[in-house]
Design a protein that fits this description.
With about 575 residues, this protein is of the alpha/beta class. The chain is about 35% helix and about 10% strand.
């Protein structure tokens, strides 16, 4: 690469023999020689390569091998890679336990760890890998935060499991627990689901949080076209041919960015975020995208609010027929043309901004020129003029006296109407789950799970265990669950999360008592506690915030620093 093509930050670390702080950097080069750097390497662009590998979850089990492929590609292209790992907390494994409190927290820790490495080595560019849910926004947050030259690559989706002539995935296991508690399946059937649901490496296969965020980031322009819908591995559990191609294309794109000097904030504009939100909701994506896109927008210095998100959701039809509410998985979309095909469908119908730049160096419109049209004779993706569900019937932002700052309802195309029910109040997720599994929740109840918010949890746990138990018990269409926590992308049913202000800071959610009437008012887009303002004031006068649950360590730090869910639950 021609030296004039880029302004190298890494020269601050390595120096140059022609006099550019060479003497001062002798010690740094001495140490780098010990890890196989040569004289020639000191003149190459230094590339940070974040590899969040762990064998603790299938989502990231293939990431180390993918990192090795990327390192080879970077060095073949004339760069030198600085490789490092990050934490990975598996949502699926930690779900329903205290460990889940570290999941959303890990987003901040991972982002900070990548910043530490990119700035600590003054790299010239960065390429980050991701797999499990929180690693995906975390992989992009520091690139936006410091306006770096860089991009991110998703490790890919898992193939479906198979048992008794049915496709299975991780949510099959959670819903199986509810079905078992309701007597619908026996021990043998539940064990069979456990053994077959996840056949190998890759992130959860439905339109859950991982695939939602990977697709959104592709629409945002910060990963190479097509990479979000390629499978992680093949039937032999080896890195797929498509994912190997993604690695090569990602490195080529990175070096193109180095040549042009295009940085993250040149790409991550307000219009690009609108594209990301539009695609996420058209596919039927996870409520977690609200949190993560708010966080990413903050890092990119883009003004994005819940009200802005609400305005977008009202106009986007639901096109995807994907689990958890629909029939299909990402491997069903892949052979139809993947995410680029859906983006072209939306662009041709006027839903996407075609002039937004992407890491390919081209605009969205240019990237979509050769993409195939929506195939006929399939029901995985529907056309905008005949959608799976009309606009405004997927993600909705509600307010009202229970959520003055807002909350998030995942409607998933269902024809819901305004309803009221008695509050069944629980101070933590485990207590609600126990009540569901023991048959103490009745049709028409409104389950309230509080003190699970960003500060109160702390960590804003996902409520997949109780929500999946409701579905498995046959109560998914008759019982609502509301919380200041959040939901897995695998959640479906009548679920309202991210209630803000949260209970820990004195939100009205903290003042609900057993048996109070809760109203979900969809005509006015409100969530209300049906007691008088005077009664709310009276209850508030006697309310005391619970003492912090953690006094030291990561969770204590997080609780002190984290913002409201309505602002993305960020710590920066």
């Amino acid at each position: 690469m021609a030296e004039a093509a880029m302004k190298r930050r890494s020269s601050e670390i390595t120096g140059k023999r022609d006099g550019d702080n060479w003497v001062e950097r002798t010690a740094a080069r001495t140490m780098l020689r010990a890890v196989r750097f040569t004289d020639a390497d000191f003149d190459k662009p230094l590339i940070a390569l974040a590899v969040p590998y762990t064998n603790g979850t299938p989502c990231n089990d293939q990431i180390r091998e993918l990192g090795d492929l990327l390192q080879a590609e970077i060095e073949a292209a004339g760069g030198k890679a600085i490789i490092f790992g990050t934490p990975v907390v598996s949502d699926g494994i930690s779900m329903g336990t205290e460990a889940m409190k570290y999941s959303l927290v890990s987003r901040e820790v991972i982002a900070d760890a990548i910043e530490v490495m990119t700035e600590g080595y003054r790299v010239d560019a960065v390429l980050t890998l991701s797999g499990c849910d929180k690693t995906i926004p975390a992989a992009l947050m520091p690139i936006a935060r410091n306006n770096l030259i860089g991009l991110t690559l998703y490790g890919g989706s898992i193939l479906p499991g198979r048992h008794a002539d049915q496709d299975l995935n991780i949510v099959s296991a959670f819903e199986g627990i509810g079905a078992h508690a309701a007597g619908k399946i026996d021990d043998r059937q539940l064990h069979a689901i456990e053994c077959h649901a996840c056949p190998g490496a890759g992130s959860c296969g439905g339109m859950y949080t991982a695939n939602t965020m990977a697709a959104a980031i592709e629409a945002l322009g910060m990963s190479v076209p097509g990479s979000s819908s390629n499978m992680a591995v093949d039937a032999n559990n080896c890195i797929s041919v498509d994912k190997r191609g993604d690695a090569a294309r990602s490195v080529a794109a990175l070096f193109g960015l180095l040549e042009s000097g295009l940085t993250a904030r040149d790409i991550m504009t307000r219009r690009a975020f609108e594209n990301a939100l539009t695609l996420a909701w058209a596919l039927g994506g996870s409520t977690n995208a609200v949190l993560h896109l708010l966080a990413l927008a903050r890092e990119a210095a883009v003004d994005l609010t819940l009200s802005d998100i609400a305005a977008i959701t009202k106009n986007v039809p639901l096109l995807g027929n994907f689990k958890p509410f629909g029939r299909y998985l990402m491997n069903d979309l892949h052979p139809l043309g993947g995410v680029p095909m859906v983006m072209k469908l939306l662009f041709d119908a006027g839903y996407l901004h075609g002039d937004c730049l992407t890491v390919s160096g081209k605009t969205v419109a240019e990237n979509l020129k050769e993409v195939p049209n929506l195939p006929s004779g399939q029901d995985v993706v529907f056309p905008p003029d005949k959608p799976y569900a009309p606009a405004g019937r997927h993600i909705r932002i509600l307010h009202g006296n229970l959520a003055a700052e807002g909350c998030v309802l995942k409607q998933s195309g269902k024809a819901l109407s305004t309803s009221t029910g008695p509050a069944r109040v629980f101070e933590r997720e485990e207590d609600a789950l126990a009540a569901i599994l023991s048959g103490k929740i009745l049709p028409g109840d409104v389950i309230v799970i509080r003190y699970e918010g960003p500060q109160g949890g702390p960590g804003m746990r996902e409520m997949l265990a109780p929500s999946a138990a409701l579905m498995g018990a046959g109560l998914g269409n008759s019982v609502a669950l509301i919380t200041d926590g959040r939901f897995s992308g695998g959640t479906h049913g009548i679920m309202i999360g991210h209630i803000a202000p949260e209970a820990q800071v004195g939100g009205v959610l903290a003042l609900v008592t057993e048996g109070d009437r809760i109203e979900i008012n969809l005509e006015n887009e409100e969530l209300n506690l049906l007691v008088t303002a005077d009664e709310i004031k009276r209850r508030r006068s006697t309310w005391l915030a619970p003492a912090p649950r953690y006094l030291r360590g990561v969770l204590a730090k997080y609780a002190r620093l984290v913002s409201s869910a309505s602002r993305g639950a960020v710590t920066s």
